[in-house]
Design a protein that fits this description.
Blueprint (H helix, E strand, L loop, with lengths): L32 H11 L2 E7 L6 E7 L2 H13 L8
Antiparallel strand pairs: 1-2
Length: 88
């Protein structure tokens, strides 16, 4: 979490684009940080998402294992003796 200005809704779809910086922002940088973080997460089989905080200004970052729900379901099925389904 951070306490910066957040990202206006009209720019949220672009925050992971290389060299993108929210217009009018007063921060230094090249606009590569979030693109690099997303690429690193992807290489590790994870997804990175951001959302504006609801309790104050700023962002919340979330890092999740891709397919974690499907993998958990498969693990539960194995423990219950249910055969694996193709493609899982």
């Amino acid at each position: 979490m951070d306490t910066g200005p957040g990202v206006p809704p009209e720019y949220q779809a672009r925050v992971f684009d290389r060299f993108f910086r929210v217009p009018g922002g007063n921060t230094d940088g090249s606009g590569l940080g979030l693109a690099i973080a997303q690429a690193a997460a992807s290489r590790c089989g994870m997804t990175l998402s951001l959302r504006n905080r609801e309790d104050r200004s700023g962002l919340v970052a979330r890092l999740e294992q891709e397919g974690a729900g499907a993998m958990l379901g498969e693990l539960k099925n194995r423990r219950a003796g249910v055969p694996a389904q193709p493609g899982i």
